[in-house]
Each structure stands twice: as structure tokens, then as C-alpha cells.
Amino acid sequence: MKMSVYAVETRKLVKHYNKGKVKAVNGLDLRIKKGEIYALIGANGSGKTTTIDMLSGVLMPTTGEMNVWGLPQPKNRKKIAHYFGIAPQEYALYLDLSIWENITFFGKLYSLSREEIENTGKKLLEILNLEEKKDVIAEQLSGGMKRRLSIACALIHQPPLLLFDEATVGVDPVLRAYFWSYFRKLRDAGKTILITSHVMDEAEKADRIGLMRAGVLIEEGTPSELKQKYSVDTIEEVFIHLSGDEIIDE
Description:
It is built from eight helices and ten strands. With about 250 residues, it is of the alpha/beta class.
């Protein structure tokens, strides 16, 4: 059986609420290649988080198909869980546990040995600059440190695919730059990253971009391809061009 070159594939993916009155995702066709950083960009409410939730198995699609690491989701939800790590928009942390206890807990969820948790966990503490705070209760951490801890928990089982939903929201520019430097290192080490954002200039740092609006993919390409296609200097200008005169409620 030939392995797919895609980490994520969706075909006519749909998620409707309230008996079809709310169309969160409305026929999404998405292909993300293994070994790339793919930024799914759009205003709040465009369907980005709903897409992440369906890919991770949190939400069931209304209709459509999706494969994660070559396996149909949600049919293979338990098996697929070991192929990806997720850092959700809302922190999925245990606030009454310390940084190290959170990392250990998530490591045990993936059936890692004590030695594996120790080795990988210590490396992540060092990389994400959390060593000196490892015994601090998560509730006492700043927003930026919670983001770092969330990413560490997503990486503890060393998955090939990372789903980062608004991973840099609410962090200062210095930390955001650090995150993107780290994301590129992960990609260079063979990881695939799907990151969502409503901050358009973040897309400039990705390998490819998908622009979402009203639950559909309205454009896709590399940053340079899209800027050249629409004769503009920024991805924000591309998005404005595609939105026309419509005012988007952020």
C-alpha cells in the first residue's frame, strides 16, 4: 500500500449546527503535505477551529471525508491520536498541576515509559525555556508560559503532525518570533505543522497558506505566489482583496 504524501486530506468536509442553519465548515477541500508548515488563515468565525476539532476527532463532521496521516478520521480516531499533537486555542492544561506534572500526565496518556517522559520532557523544558519554572502550578503562569507548556504537552509523544490552533494568540512579538523559529526547526526535523491564525502577517512565515471565509477555502498558495497573483505586498492585502467590501466581524 502506497503511503500518502499528505498529512491531512479533506474532501467536501462539512460541519453544520442548529439543523443546518449555522454552516461552520461548508465543503472544505484541504491537502497539507508532509513536512510543511501550513497556515490556515481567516477571521474569527471562519471555520478554522471547527476544522481543527474535526481533524483531531473532537467533533464529528456532518458530511464529507477526512484522512489524517493516511488514515480515515474519525473511523481510526484512537490510532490517529498517536500521530498528532494538539495545542488548542483554549488551554487544555490541568491548572492545579505543575508544569512538569502536566507534561508527565500527557506523556502517560500516550503510554510513554517513565524514561521516555524524563528524556523528552527535559529536552522540551530546555527548548521552551521552562526549566526554572517546572515546579510552578500552571494556574500561576503567564499567558505566554501557558502557551509554551501547551506546546510541550503536544510534543511529549513526538508526533509527526502538529495541530496548533491560534498558537501565538495573546503573546508578545518577541515570544511570537521565538515560536516561529522553533516551528521552522520542527519542520526541518521532519514534522508537519498546521497552524491557524486570524493574524494575517503570521502567514508570511508559513510554507503555504489557505485563506478561509465562511467555512470554505477561498484561496491557497505560497506567500510569494499569493502576493504576486494579486499584485500586493502583504497577505493581509490579499485577504482584503478577496473579501471585497464585506466587513468581517472579528
